[in-house]
Amino acid sequence: MDNVRNQRSEDTLPGRFERTSSLTFILYFIALAFVVWSFTGAGWSFSALGQGVPAMLDFLSRAWPPSTDRLAAVGLSILETFQMALVGTLVGIVLSLPLAILGAKGLTGSRSLYFLSRSIVALFRTVPDLVWALIFVITVGLGPFAGTLAIMVDTIGFCGRFFAEAMEDVDKAPSEALVATGAKRLDAIFAAVIPAAMPAFITTSLFALEKATRSSVILGLVGAGGVGIELKVAMDFFDYPLAMSIIVMIFALVLAVERLGVWARKKIIEG
Amino acid sequence: MSQVGSEAGQGSPMSIEQRHIVLQVQGLSKRFADKTVLEDITFDIRQGESVALIGSNGVGKSTALYCCLRLIEPENGRIQLLDQNLLGVKAKSLRMVRREVGFIFQKHNLVPRACALTNVLHGALGYQSGPRQWLHCLTKSKNRKRAYEMLERVGLNHIALQRADKLSGGQSQRVAIARALMQNPKIIMADEPVASLDPIAGEAIMQLFFSLCKSDGITLLFTSHNIEHALQYSDRVLAIAGGKITLDACSAELDAADLNQQYHYG
Ligand SMILES: Nc1ncnc2c1ncn2[C@@H]1O[C@H](COP(=O)(O)OP(=O)(O)O)[C@@H](O)[C@H]1O
Ligand SMILES: [Mg+2]
Questions:
Q1: Cα A68 from Cα A242, distance rounded (Å)
Q2: In the sheet where B84-85 sits, what is the strand order?
Q3: What CATH class does A73-270 carry?
Q4: Quick count: other Cβ atoms within 10 Å of Cβ B89?
Q5: What is the ipTM of this complex?
Q6: Do residue B111 and residue A191 have CB atoms under 8 angstroms apart?
């Protein structure tokens, strides 16, 4: 009796792996091979990594202590960097709102405007900010304005998408109730949908500002304003102490903006 | 904003039969997918009347009421609302009709993050469009004052600046009534206005609602699955069964026990 039962459960015990067709198996194999090969393509090298450690220590010892010679100039440059991020983000947020309203499913009811707005936002989001910076340096010239525009476009790509999704997720009943009182659809959106989506808007905007602060540091490398160019010059002239003081200040700026974001988000979730 | 209301039938000596028909529904039908909910709904409502629409659960009371303001698009039929052929009008005229009709939902449908005063102010959006009507702090003093008066009428002026999501169910429904009054409506339609409230709050709100409509001469059409409420707060009762109006009678002539038996509730 016992024997029979054992026999039966042996037969029905599922295998460890599901059977795959040989085609699937080949595809898995190709994918695995590609990953392995990619390490070569990426120049992965343990020996270089080994040699890099002492070089890094050498850099650190030569960069320490950070230089305080050009503190005021670097400080101003850091301030400019943050101002680029702030203005770019603010203008981007304002411009992304109409795009988000058009790009939120079922909010305005116009299919063609929905696709147009979604396409613009997707284009802005998928092209990297450094590429936008290169384009704006050509169109408006070297300097912080090019960087600000690049951040603005990047923010529209980010906020345009998440604002639209936030508005799609809102309970539609209050805005429908206003439409039932004879309100125009746009009034119902501004009076009922946007207030409900406001916490999500603010959270998204704070993330956008954090993101913008990090990119604004990099944009200087292509001449689009901000502290990035100072860092590059310091590195090119082997002025490592100056480079270190710039890095420390960048660190402080990004950290400060991040902490501000965390604090503000917590306030909003509680309130 | 148009100032109606005062000329409406306050203690009008005219009998109801002589008054103007404000809502006329003829042969209204509605189906969802393969299910016919309303087959042939026909009734008239005259100016200043209070009419209850009763029927058992799922019979189509809400659907009928929503169709009367075209919040649901009916299949067939004719709806004459405030002298407009509702199913034939363009979007703009539809808004013009809707702004003269208050609609109270079973769930109040207030804007949760806005204060009571702002929610009441929104009742005027059909008359005034734009940013100044979105928030009480931006609007004209005249509108603000009027919104406050409407809150006063429902007894909630002391919590004008309280956020709607902090109000109790009964308070929220009062704010919704104040918002409807802000529209200066000729008609108020209410879909089970107290069904989601406890009996005591529900009673108080029906009482308030009824007396406000009577004192302003506002025509009232409400649905209810509470026969006692329906009889107490209406001049006339309509009942729906099988997609048709099966009863149209004066409330005074009806008996709650009879109706309860006829339109069985479970
Ligand atoms: N949007 C909808 N889609 C499909 N069926 C619906 C929809 N709305 C209502 N119904 C159906 O129509 C019938 C009538 O609903 P309703 O008008 O809400 O009834 P009542 O208000 O009398 O309880 C119900 O059987 C319900 O399931
Ligand atoms: Mg219902």
A1: 7
A2: B84-85, B76-81, B21-32, B35-46, B244-250, B236-241, B50-54, B219-223, B187-191, B101-104
A3: mainly alpha
A4: 15
A5: 0.88
A6: yes
Going from N- to C-terminal start, the domains of chain A cover 73-270
Question: Which residues, listed in sequence order, are joined to residue B31 by a DSSP beta bridge?
Answer: B36
Residues of A in contact with B125 (CB under 8 A): 178, 181-184, 187-188, 191
CB contact under 8 A, B123 and A181: yes
| CA dist list (Å): B112 to A101, A194, B224 | 20, 11, 25
Q: What is the DSSP secondary-structure string of chain A?
A: -HHHHHHHHHHHPPPSS----HHHHHHHHHHHHHHHHHHHHTT--HHHHHHHHHHHHHHHHHHPSPP-TTHHHHHHHHHHHHHHHHHHHHHHHHHHHHHHHHTSTTTS--HHHHHHHHHHHHHHHHS-HHHHHHHHHHHH-SSHHHHHHHHHHHHHHHHHHHHHHHHHHS-SHHHHHHHHTT--HHHHIIIIIHHHHHHHHHHHHHHHHHHHHHHHHHHGGGTSSSTHHHHHHHHHTT-HHHHHHHHHHHHHHHHHHHHHHHHHHHHHHH-
What the block records as the tokens of B210 is: 């009824």
Q: Within 13 Å and on the Cβ side, how many CA atoms surround B149?
A: 10
- Which among A174, A177, A182 has CB closest to B126? A182
Q: Closest ligand 1 atom to the C-alpha of B66? A: 17
Per-residue pLDDT of chain A (271 residues; tens, 9 = 90+): 455 555 666 677 877 877 778 888 899 999 999 999 999 889 888 888 888 888 889 889 988 888 888 888 888 989 999 999 999 999 999 999 999 999 998 888 788 899 999 999 999 999 998 999 999 999 998 888 999 999 999 999 999 999 999 999 999 999 999 999 999 999 999 999 999 999 999 999 999 999 999 999 888 888 888 888 888 888 899 889 999 999 999 999 999 999 999 998 888 777 6
Tell me the one-letter amino acid at A50. Answer: G
What global pTM score does this model have?
0.83
